[in-house]
Amino acid sequence: MRLTAPRPKALLVAAMTAATLAATSASASAAQNWQTVTSTPNMTCSAYKHHKVSNNVDFKVCIVVNSNLDAQAVLVVQNNASVAVSIGGEVATNFGSNVDCASSTLNPGFTRGCYSPTVHVGSGQTLIADARLRLNGVDEWWSAS
What we know:
Blueprint: H1 8-26, E1 31-32, E2 43-45, E3 49-51, E4 54-65, E5 70-79, E6 85-93, E7 99-106, E8 111-115, E9 119-120, E10 129-135, E11 138-144
Parallel strand pairs: 1-7
Antiparallel strand pairs: 2-4, 3-4, 4-5, 5-8, 5-9, 6-7, 6-10, 10-11
């Protein structure tokens, strides 16, 4: 197989395309800070799961739907360890409410949630949310529907 050097015009087009894609996708998934979690009757959650890094750090995925049929997903993390841990991750849904969760420190005994944006979903739709928790640099996925 023979390799040829790319032409300057082709490089310029590729660079412009990459820049356009980066600019258009960045606004949909800005990093979110972790917040205190308040459970409500409108919140449906998966069971807590131990992260593979530690049996003392649990996480779950929740979907919140209000009376206007607006929904959002939440990655909830609970630190039952005796030391602080590093968390981050993302939430991905089938209803267009996605978010990157900022890297943060979660102190012992605390529970925090990373909330995706609220979007209108209407009625009769099956809602699915997947979340990835990065715990001390190791990723693990969990799903709620």
